[in-house]
Amino acid sequence: MKKVLILAAVLAVFYGVVFGEGFQQYAQAEAEGISEEIWFMKIPEVVTASKAKESINKAPAIVYVVTREEIKLSGARSLAEILKRVPGMRISVRETSLLGSRGFTSDQNDKFLFLVDGTPITNIMQDGTYNFIDMPNLSMVEKIEVVKGPASTLWGSDATFGIINIITKNGSDIEGVKVSADYSAGNNQATGNILAGRKIEAGSYLFSLTYTESGGYSFGAAQNEGNTVYQWGNEKDIIQSGFVNPPLTENMGARILDYSPSFELYSKLSLGNYTLKGRVSYMAQKYLWNTNYEYKMTDAAMKHMYLEAERSDNFGDNISLATKVNAHGLEYERGLPVSYVKGVTWVAADIETMAEMGFSAESMLSASVADIHRIVTGVKFSRINIGPDTRIEYLPDMSDSGNIGYLYVITLKPAIDNTIGVYLEDNIDVTDRLSLVGGLSYEYNDLREIGGNIMPRAAVILQATDEISAKYAYNTGYGRPPAQKKFGRYFGHAQKSEKIQEHDVQLMFNNKLINVGFTGFNYYIMDYLTWYDDGTEDPVTHVHMNAGHYNKGVAISNGIELSARGNLSRDLSLYGNYMYAETEINGGIPVGEPKHVYNIGADWYVTRDISANLNVNGFVDMYHGKSADERDLYWSGWQEQMVDLTVVAENILDRFSVTVYGTNLLNNKVHVGMTGYPGYTYLGGLSIGGRISASF
Predict the structure, then answer these.
(1) Least C-beta-crowded within 10 Å: which of 124, 198, 337, 659?
(2) pLDDT at residue 601 in the model
(3) Domain count for the chain
C-alpha cells in the first residue's frame, strides 16, 4: 500500500506540472494558430470492443490503444516489445514469449485472441500464438487495440483474458514503397521488410514482406550463477522450490530463442465493397528446454496461412451487413533434443507434428434504431480438420540402458472441430451522456467442449462532463481447452472449459493536454487451466507421468490499473502506468505472477524530424513458491527493470529515416516465463541496434 501511495503522490505532482506549464503553452499555441495535431492527445476511436466504431470512452470494456506514433517513438521491433508498455501487461520476450495480464500468465498465449484487421491468427491445436515473431511487422501497423478481460460475447471462446487487434495501415497511407533493415546486437537479430501500398481508383492495396533471422541470447557458466527454477510440487497445488540449475559449460553456448530463418507475407486489397486479405508465415525456431539437461536445443517450425474475403453493404444510413469467409491452414513441427536426460542419448525416430485445416464464415448486421439503439447481431460457423496422429519415438543408447525402449505420444487422432455461434448486443443511448449496453451470445462446440455456452455482457457508461467519464462493465468468457492440452497422451489432462467473469470500474479524464485513467478489476475464473507436475517419473523413459495441463479449481484476481499521459510542452510528453494485482488459486495459493507491474517514460521532439524516447518498465514482488518452513517466497524490490532508449531521425534527404535503440541499458537480469513455474532468471545483456528505412 505504501508503494501505491507514493505512486499516487508522484502522479499528483506530475499532473500539476502538466496543467501549469502545459496549459500556458497550449494557450499560446492557440493564439498563434498552431495546429492541434502536434499535441497528440485526441480521444481515439476503437472497433474491437463492440465490432463497431465508437469512442474509447463509450466502449463496453476496458480498451487501451497503441498509436502509430507511439510505435515509432518506442523503436519496438516486435509486438512483444510494444505490448509490455500497455497497462498491466508483462511479457517474457525470450524463450516462449509468454503474455501476462492482471496477475495471470497465458500458456502459449492461448487465453488471448490475436487479430490482424479483425481476423484471428490463433489455432485450436495450441489455441495461441506461441511466439511473437509470428506476428505482423510493426512497419505496417496503424494502431493496436488491446481489450482487457474476457470478450467472448462477440468474439467466442478464445477471448478469455483479452483481445490484441493489430490494425494495419491503408495503402493510401503509404503511397509507394518503403524498405527497411534492422539489426540488433545481443540477440544478433536481423530483420528486413518491404512495405508497399497505394490508393487506386476503386480502393487501395497493401503488401508487406518480412524476413527475420536471429542468433538468440547466449550465456555461459558465469552468467548462469544463481539461476533457479521453481515448479509445481504436490497434490495441494502449492508451488515448491525446485532444483538449482548446474552451471553451464563455457563451450556449450546455450541459446534462448533462435530464429533462423523466419518470414511473413501479408497483403490486403480493398475494391469497392470487397476486401481480400491473405497472410503466410513461416517460423523456424530453436529454443532452450531446461538447463538441468545437456544438449537440450529443440528445433521447431511453424507454417501458418489464411485467406479471407469480406463484403460490406450499406442499406441506407442506418443498416449495414458484413459477411466474410476464411480458409486457413497450420502445420507445426518440433524436433527432439539430442539428449533428453544426462547420461542417456535419445535419438528421435520421428518428430512431433500438429496440423489443422479448415474454414469459417460470419455474417454481422449492424443497425441504428430511432437514434437511440445501436444493435449488432451475427451468426458464425467454423469447421476445422485436425490431425493426423502425432508420434514421438525415443530410442535410448544401448550402452547406457542395455535395451531398446519406445515412447509414443498421440497428440490427437484425426478429427473435426465444429463450432456455431450467435450473438446480439444493444447499445442504448438513454440520454446524451448516459448509455446502457447489454449483450448475449451462445456458442456450441462438438469436439473440445461437446456442448454450448451462454455468455452475457452488460455495461453502464456515463459521460459526466466533456472531460470526465465513468463506466462499469461486466464481461464473461470461456476458453475451450486446446486440442494439445485436452487430448495429448502425456500432457493433455484438461477436461473442462475455463469459465470467467470480470467486473471493471473505470474513471477517465481526457482533454487536449492530459489523459488519465483509473480502473479497478475483479476476475473470477472457474476450472482454471494451468500446468501441474507432481514429479512422478517413468523409470525407463524418465518422462514425468503426471505432468500436463489440468483444471485446478477457482482462480481470483483483484487489482487496479493507473495510466496517464500528458504534455509538459509542445515538445515533451510524459506517460506512465501501473498495475497492482492480488491473485490466488483455491482460496489462498498465490499465482506465480508479480503484484506490481509498472511502465514510465518520456517522448521528446528535439526537432520536428528528430525524436527520442526513454522508457523504464518492470515488475515487483513475484511469487516463487514456499520455503522449507512453509514461508511464501517472493522476488522483492525492483527485481526486473528494463531501461530502453530510442532516437528516431526522419526525412533525411527527404527519403531516409534512421532509428537507433538500446535495450536493457543497465544490463539487468530478466525473467524467462514458463507455464506453471515462475521460471528462470538470467543476464539478458545490453542490446544495441539500429534501423534504416527508405521510401520511394
Answers:
(1) 198
(2) 95
(3) 1
